[in-house]
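Record 1 of the preview.
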Amino acid sequence: MRIKPFSIVLTLFFLLGSCEKENAVSVNGLGSAIIGAWSRTDVVPSGVTYTDLRYFDIKTTYTFDSDKAYSYRVDFYGFEDENPEAIIGSSENVGTYEVRGDSLFIKALAHTSWEKGYKPDPETTRLGGEAYGYKFGIVDDELTLYYISYPADAPVPTQMTFEKVVP
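->
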């Protein structure tokens, strides 16, 4: 008995397709699943040389409302060795969003920021409302955004994951 290559490929296609993660949100359900707040915290070094490095936290939060409004907020905390719980600066974009399949399009309309030592009074700037797009997925209460970043010499596929904030 001779098995045709097409039969093998077809069988592999169905087997691999059935291995989808159980806790992944289907593409059709992503529009409602994204509603809520999603956050991540990164520890960032600051200093001129390795021996001068001090570390502080940056907390990034996306919030998507059911009325298609969104905010992207970044809070900067004090150094670990000096006021680590105090917010020493903040930056926030607000605007609208749209979900189409597994694509998320956000349109920033205003940006507000302040920083304790440099610009202590919040200042808001109106933005042009240019839409930016991401591919995204939600698995196990984690939102992952897939996008292209542009470091020094070439575009690089990048992803960032946020955890669902439980109210």
